[in-house]
């Protein structure tokens, strides 16, 4: 892993740990570093500047329309419940909210409900 990619992933990993996302492990997805919940990837590095984040399709459309400086997609992701995030443009609080929402998308319902009703998408 190159240094820039490693630094970017360390930020993502640190924010996920700070959020206290249960059952989160580090792995790979499509050959890049990823965070998984119960073996399912919920975020992965696309490259050192871009994070792939799982999300509901309707949420994806809304977020990309509201803030295209942060969220976008390529043709590869059209129609899929994942969007791309510009890591240099997103602040830690907003990124943490995206990580939590992505974790909730992939976590088993029982685990997500135990995580707490106080943390919302």
Category by helix and strand content:
alpha+beta
How helix-rich are the residues, as a percent range? 40-55%
Strand order of the largest sheet: 1-2-3-4-6-5
Tell me, briefly, the overall form: globular
Task: Return the CATH topology.
Answer: Aspartate Aminotransferase, domain 1
CATH architecture, please?
Answer: Alpha-Beta Complex
What is the top-level CATH class?
Answer: Alpha Beta
According to DSSP, the number of beta strands is: 6
Distance between the termini: 31 Å
Low-confidence stretches: 117-121
Which H/E pattern describes the elements?
HEEEEHEEHH
How many DSSP H or I helices?
4
Summarize the structure.
With 121 residues, the chain is of the alpha+beta class. Helix content is 40%, strand content 26%. The protein has a 6-stranded antiparallel beta sheet with strand order 1-2-3-4-6-5.
Features:
121 residues; alpha+beta; Aspartate Aminotransferase, domain 1; 6-stranded antiparallel beta sheet; 4 helices; YjbR/MT2646/Rv2570-like
If you had to describe this structure to a student in words, what would you say it looks like?
There is one protein chain. This protein has 121 residues and is α+β, with helices and mostly antiparallel strands. It has one domain: Alpha-Beta Complex (Aspartate Aminotransferase, domain 1), CATH 3.90.1150.30. It is 40% helix and 26% strand. It is built from 4 helices and 6 strands, in the order H-E-E-E-E-H-E-E-H-H. It has helices at residues 3-19, 57-66, 92-106, 109-115, and strands at 24-29, 32-37, 40-47, 50-54, 71-72, 82-86. The protein has a 6-stranded antiparallel beta sheet. A hairpin with a 2-residue loop joins strand 2 (32-37) and strand 3. Helix 1 crosses helix 3 (92-106). The longest helix has 17 residues, at 3-19. The termini are far apart.
């Amino acid at each position: 892993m190159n240094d820039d990619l490693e630094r970017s992933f360390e930020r993502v990993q640190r924010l996920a740990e700070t959020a206290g996302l249960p059952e989160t492990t580090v792995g790979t997805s499509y050959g890049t570093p990823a965070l998984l919940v119960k073996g399912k990837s919920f975020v992965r590095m696309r490259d050192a500047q871009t994070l792939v984040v799982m999300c509901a399709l309707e949420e994806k459309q809304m977020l990309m329309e509201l803030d295209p400086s942060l969220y976008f997609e390529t043709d590869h992701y059209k129609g899929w419940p994942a969007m791309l995030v510009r890591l240099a443009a997103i602040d830690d609080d907003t990124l943490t909210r995206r990580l939590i929402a992505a974790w909730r998308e992939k976590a088993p319902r029982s685990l997500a409900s135990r995580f707490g009703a106080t943390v919302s998408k």
